[in-house]
Design brief:
3-stranded parallel sheet, globular, 7% strand, mainly alpha, TIM Barrel, 3 strands
Length: 128
């Protein structure tokens, strides 16, 4: 999904992965941009419903994450941070991270989103 001119979002609807999530329960599915700009509620629904579906926050201005995802604390256990770098509008990864850390999200949930969850999703030693 994208908000940039010329982007086509027709196939970005998160519900299109529902059957894949059902048929392949061991396949991790990452919903990039968390469904922004059109389908954030669907993305959150799927992440809460399926153990193998994750939200990813790239493409969302970090200082506006809670505006787009006011229920983020409820799905923090299924969310990973992303910068969207080198995408348009991302000038500085460190600034994006600092803006995210400045949000009024409890430190334990920020740690989950920034550290714990990425290691679960992308383990250093994948299971056999």
């Amino acid at each position: 999904t994208s908000v940039f001119p010329g982007a086509v979002s027709r196939f970005g609807e998160p519900l299109l992965i529902e059957e894949v999530a059902l048929d392949f329960p061991r396949l991790p599915i990452v919903l990039a941009h968390g469904g922004r700009p059109l389908w954030m509620d669907q993305a959150i629904f799927l992440a809460r419903r399926f153990p193998n579906v994750w939200l990813e926050l790239s493409g969302v201005p970090p200082n506006r994450v809670l505006e787009y995802f006011p229920d983020l604390p409820k799905v923090a256990a299924k969310t990973v941070f992303g910068t969207d770098w080198p995408g348009p509008g991302v000038r500085d990864i460190a600034a994006n991270l600092a803006a995210f850390r400045a949000l009024p999200i409890p430190a334990d949930l920020q740690s989950q989103i920034l550290e714990t969850n990425p290691l679960k999703l992308f383990p250093r030693h994948p299971p056999n």
